[in-house]
């Protein structure tokens, strides 16, 4: 009886079906590449672990997703410093050894001083002998407070050089020797996919009290990946710090209660500038900040200057693709949106070889119109729908157990 009552109290949960299905329009069999789009980012899980490729029979098909380099996919590495040297009152020089060839598109410095503008030349090498110039017109700044601010991150052309050689040139008012205290870079073993601009909706607000210009961008999907923001400014000369934040919506509030305000979480910061340098105009209008977000906000710190004449903002997203091999005569579809499923693990991702070489020979397939399944409300357990039967079984089981115990006691007496 107890076993019967226990069986009645447990309900077997069936796996949740995907909420979205889309036909994959394949031009041919063989290697195929499918571009992920806004609907995938809006309905799929944040890590894309709920994506499934299935054939017409519903059988799963192995696949691999070429992820974009976004928040959390690069790791910050502090390289070994070699060959520190200086040219008195001219420059400090250091070589950075990352130990192996790693992809990187920026480097962050920590320099002595709290009020400077210094030009930085960055060269790259794989053998430490032959060098090529990555940039000779990058600048770092320190602005005294209140509040003080430092902008020491340099955007670089994407490269996988093992060695970087940095020469930080003296600025006006610098001492005879300046110090490069530390350097680091965000690195990855795989090159970031090609970036493409995505349509956004821009809203501007001037916060006169905090001396900030707020640029809010709706990226159009719940988990839209992006990895760079570019700002178009009409002003001829300026230097402004920028903080990039992601919107965090509050949980649903109970009826009749005032919902809590929207919160903003920091993603990163950078510097926008344009001015005349000795070798001609110098500017930086790009912010190397990424993640997977629905909405982001740029806080431009104006201090006591008038707001910038911002003409537009472009958000660049990585081109993410799903690769699989199609058999002749079969039809395929992509499904996503099933909650609670475990991300698949296929041999395909470990045996396909170099992703870039594989992608070159792949034909481009298209995703069809999303077909959304109506999600049924959670099924009420049988025991909740028939509580009287459950309690009757439990009472009967308890009474039977009591009777057996009484008989055992009488027999023992």
Explain the overall architecture.
The structure is a single chain. The protein is mostly beta strands. The protein is 13% helix and 47% strand. It has 6 helices and 31 strands. Mean pLDDT is 86; it is low at 1-14.
| Residue share in β-strands | over 45%
Mean pLDDT: 86
E-strand count: 31
How many alpha or pi helices?
6
CA-based gyration radius: 30 Å
* CATH homology-level superfamily of the largest domain: Galactose-binding domain-like
Stretches with pLDDT under 50, minimum 5 residues: 1-14
In CATH, the topology of the largest domain is named: Jelly Rolls
Instruction: State the end-to-end distance.
Output: 27 Å
CATH architecture of the largest domain: Sandwich
Summarize the model shown.
The chain is mostly beta strands and 413 residues long. The chain has 6 helices and 31 strands.
Q: What key attributes describe this structure?
A:
413 residues, mainly beta, Jelly Rolls, 4 domains, 9-stranded mixed sheet, 6-stranded antiparallel sheet, 31 strands, disordered N terminus
List the helices and strands and how they pair.
Blueprint: H1 2-9, E1 20-25, E2 30-35, H2 38-43, E3 52-55, E4 60-61, E5 64-66, E6 75-77, E7 80-87, E8 91-97, E9 103-111, E10 116-125, E11 132-143, E12 149-151, E13 153-159, E14 163-169, E15 180-188, E16 195-198, E17 201-207, E18 212-218, E19 224-226, E20 228-233, E21 238-248, E22 263-277, E23 280-284, E24 286-287, E25 291-293, E26 295-301, E27 310-318, E28 321-326, E29 332-336, H3 348-351, H4 355-360, E30 363-367, E31 371-372, H5 382-385, H6 387-412
Parallel strand pairs: 2-30
Antiparallel strand pairs: 1-29, 1-30, 1-31, 2-28, 3-4, 3-29, 5-28, 6-15, 7-8, 8-14, 9-13, 9-15, 10-11, 10-14, 11-12, 16-27, 17-18, 18-26, 19-25, 20-24, 20-27, 21-22, 21-26, 22-23
């Amino acid at each position: 009886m107890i076993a019967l009552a226990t069986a009645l109290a447990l309900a077997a949960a069936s796996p949740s079906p995907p909420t979205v299905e889309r036909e994959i329009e394949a031009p041919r069999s063989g290697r195929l590449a499918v571009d992920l789009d806004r609907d995938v980012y809006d309905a799929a899980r944040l890590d894309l672990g709920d994506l499934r490729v299935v054939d017409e029979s519903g059988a799963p098909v192995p696949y691999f997703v070429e992820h974009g380099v976004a928040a959390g996919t690069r790791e910050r590495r502090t390289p070994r410093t070699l060959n520190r040297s200086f040219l008195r009152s001219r420059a400090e020089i250091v070589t950075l050894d990352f130990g192996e060839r790693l992809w990187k598109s920026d480097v962050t410095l920590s320099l002595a001083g709290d009020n400077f503008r210094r030009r930085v030349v960055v060269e790259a090498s794989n053998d430490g002998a032959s060098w090529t110039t990555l940039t000779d017109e990058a600048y770092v700044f320190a602005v005294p407070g209140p509040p003080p601010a430092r902008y020491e991150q340099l955007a670089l052309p994407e490269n996988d050089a093992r060695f970087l050689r940095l020469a930080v040139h003296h600025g006006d008012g610098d001492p005879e020797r300046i110090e490069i205290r530390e350097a680091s870079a965000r690195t990855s073993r795989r090159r970031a996919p090609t970036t493409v601009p995505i349509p956004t909706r821009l809203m501007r607000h001037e916060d006169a009290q905090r001396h900030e210009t707020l640029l809010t961008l709706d990226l159009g999907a719940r988990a839209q990946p992006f990895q760079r923001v570019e700002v178009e400014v009409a002003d001829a000369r300026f230097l402004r710090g920028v903080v990039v934040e992601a919107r965090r919506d509050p949980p649903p509030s109970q009826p009749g209660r005032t919902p809590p305000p929207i919160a903003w979480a920091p993603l990163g910061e950078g510097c926008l500038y344009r001015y005349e340098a000795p070798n001609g105009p110098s500017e930086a209008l790009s912010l190397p900040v990424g993640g997977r977000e629905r909405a982001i906000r740029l806080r431009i710190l104006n201090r006591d200057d008038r707001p910038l004449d911002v003409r537009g903002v472009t958000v660049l997203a990585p081109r993410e693709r799903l690769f699989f091999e199609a058999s002749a005569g079969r039809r395929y579809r992509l499904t996503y949106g099933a909650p609670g499923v475990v991300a698949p693990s296929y041999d395909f991702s470990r045996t396909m070889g170099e992703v870039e070489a594989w992608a070159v020979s792949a034909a481009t397939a298209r995703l069809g119109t999303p077909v959304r399944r109506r999600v049924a409300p959670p099924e009420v357990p049988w025991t909740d729908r028939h509580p009287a039967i459950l309690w009757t079984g439990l009472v009967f089981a308890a009474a039977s157990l009591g009777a057996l115990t009484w008989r055992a006691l009488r027999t023992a007496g």
